[in-house]
Amino acid sequence: MAYEKMTRKQLEAENAKLMKAKADIRAKQIELNAALAKKIAEEKVAAKVAALSDDEKTIAAQVLKGAGGIKSGEAVGTPGAK
């Protein structure tokens, strides 16, 4: 764009448009990063569970069941969200 040829009003309007786009992108990044953090955590837990022996898996299941299970993402909240 030829900013030099734009009026002050046009420049301010363009700046406002870009600021809105930036805010929209930032909101999407926050949502994306929360989903990414959840996927990474799930992969880490899956790898740890896969490394457990059958006895350890049985004991872990009993412990989790006795603790009332694991709360859903809705009950706990979205990672990275404010």
Short description:
The chain has 82 residues and is mainly alpha-helical. It is 74% helix and 0% strand. It starts with 7 loop residues before the first helix and ends in a 6-residue tail after the last helix.
What distinguishing features does this structure have?
82 residues, mainly alpha, 74% helix
Structure commentary:
The chain is mainly alpha-helical. Helices cover 74% and strands 0% of the residues. The longest helix is centred in the middle third of the chain and has 44 residues, at 8-51. The model has no long low-confidence stretch (mean pLDDT 89).
Q: What portion of the residues fall into strands of 2 or more residues? A: under 5%
Order of helices and strands: HHH
Sheet/helix structural class: mainly alpha
> Could you tell me the number of beta strands?
0
Give the termini separation. 36 Å
Mean pLDDT: 89
Q: In which range does the helix fraction lie? A: over 70%
Radius of gyration: 24 Å
The number of helices is 3
Walk me through the topology.
Layout: H1 8-51, H2 54-66, H3 73-76
